[in-house]
Amino acid sequence: MSAGTNKIAVTVTDIIEVNQLVKRFKFERTGGGDLPVFSGGAHTVVEMLDKEITRLNPYSIMSDPMDQNAYTISVRRDDKGRGGSLFMHHQVRVGDEMVISYPVNLFALDLRAKKHLMIAGGIGITPFLAQIKQLTTLQYHFELHYSVRNNTVGSYVDELTSFYPKNTHIYYSDDGQSIDLEQLLDGQPLGTHVYICGPKDMITWVYETAESMGWPREVIHYEEFLAPQSGKPFEVLLEQSNKTIQVGEHQSLLEAMEAADVDAPYLCRGGACGQCETNVISSEGQFIHRDHWLDDEQRKSGKKIMPCVSRFEGKSLVLDR
Amino acid sequence: MSKFKFPNSIISRPVYGVLKPRNGKSHLMIADAEGAEALFEIAASNTAIMAKSHILYFPKNTGQSYIKKLEKLNAAQLYIGPSYEASVSRLRRVLEDAHVGLQVYLTGTESLIGQAMQEIVAAGIPHTAIQTEHRGSVARRMQCVHCKGITEDVVTDPFVCSHCGLHLFVRDHYSRRHAAFQGVCVDAENPGDIPDPVELYS
Ligand code: FES
């Protein structure tokens, strides 16, 4: 299979309940041996064999990028999601064998920066945990501003505040605390880069505020994994493969292609990397674009779709795949 | 007329735009010679910007021609220096105290734009976020790829390296790291076979 990246067979060697919402999973190579080194901010795509469905969900790797013994990820339970996080929380046990992808980094540090300013919201903390370890090893300067509901669900707050007391700033929204963003962005030394990972609103807020204050786009980095959304089922003709497939209500177009044994490319499965971009041969109906990849013009043209997150409603859709 | 349209060339050759006012709490404008004219235009298009601007200006061979008018722009700070080279430490000081959000505008000769760009990138602003506009002379700052010496204000092709004396062919191959175009020995294959120098872009 050429889609995605190379795969690694791993065994779950530890599961820790971080708090009522988050569990941490540790993966080691099945049969022993080193895992590849990665760079802070990378994610891995975890394959979940959930009865007849194969789910492939991306999770940021939070362990030390130089630690080749194991990767750890943190999964926040999403009771309203399509089931990937519930599978991880309820079905996966220590000793289970799973398959994960090689790490892929779409949220890399720019090591030319003189200072790394990190803004995290909720479970968006995970890529920063690996980045902070990398930056600490390299002795680079960072500052973390981490907003969570409260201490009970604030994953890794205690660890961060005890290891990096000078660099870490925590905001509990239940106590009415919030980041004074303009104050924070004003007066940062030249060469500062800002990184944002958290809910969409937070990313937009920081991005727009920074831009309005004259921050160059090149120094603003963010990562948002879009989970594919459920929607009305639809039918697609894949011309190259000569197959007609049905995309189920809780399935993404990419997943439906994979279920039909079509080798469709992907990397992030979250609408960010551009890898899954697919040409539309013809269509009669409405695209529901949910990615961060296509620009307005491409969307208007009706000639492109990102099957990992986007859907279609209407009479007919023919794709060049 | 201080504007010149460079013909399309290889990808390494810098291309210049037209300065546009941008959002920001402070602005740094560095210009030499006819670059002053680009500053007048930007000031005319946005009258508020000058109160937040620091201008570093080097007249080169234009003498006093632009000075009065520059003073009238009422920039927050105006520094007129004898040469870019003599003002590098001042520029470094300005960048040390600067914050993200500073907008940078470079205009004038390629040599000035390239060298100022070097300092500003080293200070942490990505080169793609720095605005540039070429004005005035098309003379080039050339590096000899053989002896590595820099010859300023090259106006003919080929030219003689001011360090090692080789006759060098003027290439569009540019080094951002050295802020210089790369000059290569023109008669390496046939020693002594040196074409007559022609003026650049003539
Ligand atoms: S797989 Fe990355 S955009 Fe679809």
UniProtKB/TrEMBL annotation, chain A:
Keywords from the UniProt entry: 2Fe-2S, Dioxygenase, Flavoprotein, FMN, Iron, Iron-sulfur, Metal-binding, Oxidoreductase
Lineage, top ranks: Bacteria, Pseudomonadati, Pseudomonadota, Alphaproteobacteria, Rhodospirillales
Segments crossing the lipid bilayer: none
Domain (2Fe-2S ferredoxin-type) ranges: 234-321
Official protein name in the record: Dioxygenase
Location of the FAD-binding FR-type domain: 5-110
PROSITE patterns: 2FE2S_FER_1, 2FE2S_FER_2, FAD_FR
Coiled-coil intervals, chain numbering: none
Molecular-function GO term, any one: metal ion binding
Required co-factors: FMN
Domain of life per record: Bacteria
UniProtKB/TrEMBL annotation, chain B:
Assigned keywords, A-Z: 2Fe-2S, Flavoprotein, Iron, Iron-sulfur, Metal-binding, Oxidoreductase
InterPro entries: DmmA-like_C (IPR048037), DmmA-like_N (IPR054582)
Pfam families: DmmA-like_C (PF22289), DmmA-like_N (PF22290)
Keyword Flavoprotein among UniProt keywords: yes
Superkingdom of this protein's organism: Bacteria
Any GO MF annotation of the entry: metal ion binding
Domain Dimethylamine monooxygenase subunit DmmA-like C-terminal: 141-184
Coiled-coil positions: none
Start and end residues of each Dimethylamine monooxygenase subunit DmmA-like N-terminal domain: 9-130
UniProt KW Transmembrane keyword: no
NCBIfam families on file: mono_DmmA_fam (NF041259)
Protein name: Uncharacterized protein
Organism: Kiloniella spongiae
Biological classification of the source: Bacteria, Pseudomonadati, Pseudomonadota, Alphaproteobacteria, Rhodospirillales
